[in-house]
Amino acid sequence: MPESSPSAVPSSAESGFDPGRHQVRRVVAFGAHPDDLDFGVSGTVAAWAKAGVEVHYCIMTDGDAGGFDPAHRAGIVAMRHEEQRAAAALVGVSEVHFLGYRDGYLEPSHEVMRDVVGLIRRVRPDVVLAMHPERNWDRIQKSHPDHLACGEAVTRAVYPAVENPFAYPELAEAGLDAFKVPWLWLYAGPAERTNHRVDVTDCVEAKIAALHVHISQHPDAAAMEASVRTRMEASAAAAGFAEGAAAEEFHVVSVNNPDTIAGF
User: Which residues form the signal peptide (predicted)?
Assistant: First the structure.
């Protein structure tokens, strides 16, 4: 494992996260549906994976309400699982966890939160990635109700449940002890919340390849690709990166770091 984050990956941040100083050795990334992580964070994940960071994907629903071809309905869950595993492999992720909740019905319930807490305590990551719990009114497609539920469930889990030894005591009894998450990175949120951009220019093609694996979701794959490239280039320009660069953007939240005071 590397001693520090991949500092060779430039970033623009007002978040306080310094990739040259804050260690990133393990990451858990949560998405509501298969393909959410590929749209939102797979370039950053690919850069981390290249640097030797251990990355886990967790997909909270089976994506059973997704797709556009009626011929896929009977096998859509198995198809989307396989698509996600293959896409993850293209960006260096070998561990993909499926929580198995029904697409369109995800809620930040205690059942979901317990599953999230259990996985985070097992992996003990330096960074947790999740969809943003706030609705994006400029582009409401980012704010599918399952996306918001993913963000809310993970945020509630990260603080206080993951670090509270008395929350979900059955997890501690199973050997999953309380753990303090240092950083929460939220994606697909409102533009005004963005405080961190990562230059993923070297990983764009891996990201695009991963997105193309999700064939059940793209009736117009060329339009999808063009849209993703345009948004990433605009994000890089907003960060002041070099012309032609591509970036992914986040709302980075410091959860437990040297200046953190518990309970405040």
Answer: none
